[in-house]
């Protein structure tokens, strides 16, 4: 299983890693049974994600996809961040082995989960905006 240089760079030197204390929303996806758990924090001001961080327990691909996803949504309006797909994360990392694609799906779901939490904290039903966040297929949960 070969990883791209970008995957290795984001694994060895992850961006935006750590717990955020003054977050606007937090989302957690994954399952200990599949071995990957992602928690993503967002800080929102005027509908823009001004800061984002993550904590991931998992393989190198899970850490790399979390890192890349945070880079891709930082400074973006929520509406734009919600359009980020797992395919875009994989492309930004110059690809992932087939058995690691679920890591990019978790990164996409972590963003949506954090945004959904942000809206819930505002007293807004997130489902019409964020949609349903399906369970991790790799985890079978």
From the spread of the alpha carbons, the general shape counts as globular
Number of helices: 6
Q: Rg from C-alpha positions?
A: 14 Å
Strand arrangement in the largest pleated sheet: 1-2-3
Termini gap: 26 Å
Q: Can you give the helix content as a percent range?
A: 40-55%
Query: What is the count of β-strands?
Result: 3
Which structural class best describes the helix and strand composition? alpha+beta
> Major sheet: size, sense and barrel closure?
3 strands, antiparallel
List keywords for this structure.
3 strands; alpha+beta; single chain; 141 residues; 6 helices
Describe the structure.
The two termini are 26 Å apart. Helix content is 41%, strand content 19%. A hairpin with a 2-residue loop joins strand 2 (36-45) and strand 3 (48-57). Strands 1-2-3 form a 3-stranded antiparallel β-sheet. It has 141 residues and is α+β, with helices and mostly antiparallel strands. Helix 1 (5-12) packs across helix 2 (60-73), helix 2 crosses helix 5 (101-121) and helix 4 (86-92) crosses helix 5 (101-121). The radius of gyration is 14 Å and the shape is globular.
């Amino acid at each position: 299983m070969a990883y791209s240089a970008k995957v290795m760079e984001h694994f060895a030197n992850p961006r935006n890693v750590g717990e955020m204390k003054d977050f606007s929303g937090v989302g957690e996806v994954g399952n200990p049974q599949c071995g990957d758990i992602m928690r993503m924090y967002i800080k929102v001001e005027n509908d823009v994600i001004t800061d984002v961080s993550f904590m991931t327990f998992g393989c190198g691909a899970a850490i790399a996809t979390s890192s890349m996803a945070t880079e891709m949504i930082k400074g973006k309006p929520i509406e734009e961040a919600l359009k980020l797909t797992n395919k875009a994360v994989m492309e930004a990392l110059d690809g992932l082995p087939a058995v690691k694609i679920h890591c990019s799906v978790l990164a996409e779901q972590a963003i949506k989960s954090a945004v959904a939490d942000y809206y819930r904290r505002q007293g807004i039903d997130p489902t019409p905006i964020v949609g349903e966040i399906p369970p991790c297929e790799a985890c079978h949960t």
